[in-house]
């Protein structure tokens, strides 16, 4: 008997304030207007995607003490937006990124449970952490959390939230709840009955050893950054292998790398479009910004069309008060600089060309048929269970993919031809959490 064909999962990420989004394109629209969120969400639902994914921004990033130009449009609060989208979608999952460092379990569990009820069981929570004092300045407690405690607090936060969600019986009876832990003490009664899918789906995106272990022990979906076949398969195998020691099976965690797609009528046309998108994403300004993020120095006097700096990165640069603030820190800037120099020297690249070559390259480029085959191969060879698409345009960046690639995936038997359930857990093939008395 032939084994059932593996079908992929698809999700859509609303582009945030970063150089992935090409704001200069005349087709680009507002990042604030509800119509932009609605267009992308409706497109994702038309394409039968599992969920729509919003990032979080708790502080506007700064460059040399000024708010970075790409951030001046602002960052709406994600659960508020998703509550509105629940009214204009029927099946699409709604995933909010919410930080465990600057929130409290009771309040957040209540907001997520409310979204799950309003949407009929389509809520998800992307769990993120922070030890960033710069972001913490926006909050009463500041940057108080030691970096080593990020995941211990996050794990206790998720356990507490799940305990609150379980404090109502399936037949609608509330029970008193009490949690006493290192980070939280919560006692009382939860105000929201058990949600339509039991618990909102939990997503996680950390790639460190701690992050992978947290995903294996806690998450339903892991958002991976690995998009080359070898790295993706290694990450997939590593995370899936960790599940058994937490009493979980391989099917209980869905691995979905974030990817970008560029399609054309021919491979040559797709490559040309991809190259132009990369030139738009990495403007001269963005090239110097990317360089300063690695070097930790003011490099504004350098020509983006000139060579890389001869000076090494500053190993003592303070990430909380440096040239660029509010971005993810570079773990080993000296190693990154050495890699960039080797590439630049080998290919004769300028600063801007080097950044184009190294930063956020498109994952899948080709004809619709070629892209469909490549995505299918990733899933069949266990490099991923599916993909979170990150378009370069807001809000129409998914239109071509849904119109031209999704039908080919369906023809291959690699993707659903209709929703078979109403909740996000049903889309992902996840069982509802078992309620225990």
TrEMBL record:
Principal EC category: oxidoreductase
GO molecular function, one term: monooxygenase activity
Pfam hit, one: Bac_luciferase
Stored SUPFAM superfamilies: Bacterial luciferase-like
Domain Luciferase-like: 28-345
Keyword annotations from UniProtKB, A to Z: Flavoprotein, FMN, Monooxygenase, Oxidoreductase
EC numbers, comma separated: 1.14.-.-
Similarity section: Belongs to the NtaA/SnaA/DszA monooxygenase family.
Designated name of the protein: NtaA/DmoA family FMN-dependent monooxygenase
Origin organism lineage: Bacteria, Bacillati, Actinomycetota, Actinomycetes, Kitasatosporales
């Amino acid at each position: 008997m032939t084994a059932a064909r593996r079908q992929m999962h698809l999700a859509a990420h609303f582009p945030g304030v970063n150089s992935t989004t090409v704001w200069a394109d005349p087709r680009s629209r507002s990042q604030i207007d509800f119509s932009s969120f609605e267009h992308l969400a409706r497109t994702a639902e038309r394409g039968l995607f599992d969920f729509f994914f919003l990032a979080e921004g708790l502080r506007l990033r700064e460059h040399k003490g000024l708010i970075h130009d790409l951030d001046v449009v602002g960052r709406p609060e994600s659960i508020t937006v998703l509550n509105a989208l629940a009214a204009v979608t029927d099946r699409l999952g709604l995933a909010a990124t919410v930080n465990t460092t600057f929130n409290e379990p009771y309040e957040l569990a209540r907001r997520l449970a409310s979204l799950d009820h309003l949407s009929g069981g389509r809520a998800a929570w992307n769990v993120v952490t922070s030890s960033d004092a710069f972001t913490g300045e926006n909050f009463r407690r500041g940057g108080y959390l030691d970096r080593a405690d990020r995941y211990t607090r996050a794990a206790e936060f998720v356990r507490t939230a799940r305990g609150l969600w379980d404090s109502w019986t399936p037949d609608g009876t509330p029970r008193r709840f009490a949690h006493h832990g290192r980070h939280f003490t919560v006692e009382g009664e939860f105000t929201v009955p058990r949600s339509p899918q039991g618990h909102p789906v939990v997503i996680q995106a950390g790639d460190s050893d701690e992050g992978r272990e947290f995903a294996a022990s806690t998450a339903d979906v892991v958002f991976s950054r690995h998009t080359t076949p070898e790295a993706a398969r290694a990450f997939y195998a590593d995370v899936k292998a960790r599940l058994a020691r937490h009493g979980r099976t391989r099917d209980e965690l869905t691995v979905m790398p974030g990817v970008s797609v560029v399609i054309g009528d021919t491979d040559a046309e797709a490559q040309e479009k991809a190259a132009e998108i990369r030139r738009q994403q990495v403007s001269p300004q963005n090239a110097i910004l990317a360089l300063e993020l690695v070097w930790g120095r003011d490099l504004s006097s350098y020509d983006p069309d000139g060579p890389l700096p001869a000076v090494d990165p500053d190993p003592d640069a303070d990430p909380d008060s440096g040239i660029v603030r509010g971005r993810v820190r570079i773990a080993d800037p000296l190693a990154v600089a050495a890699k960039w120099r080797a590439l630049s020297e080998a290919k004769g690249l300028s600063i801007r060309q080097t950044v184009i070559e190294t930063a956020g390259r498109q994952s899948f480029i080709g004809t619709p048929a070629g892209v469909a085959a490549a995505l299918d191969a990733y899933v069949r060879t266990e490099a991923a269970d599916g993909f979170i698409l990150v378009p370069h345009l807001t809000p129409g960046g998914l239109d071509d993919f849904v119109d031209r690639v999704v039908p080919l995936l369906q023809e291959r038997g690699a993707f659903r031809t209709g929703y078979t359930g109403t909740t996000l857990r049903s889309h992902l093939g996840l069982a509802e959490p078992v309620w225990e008395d």
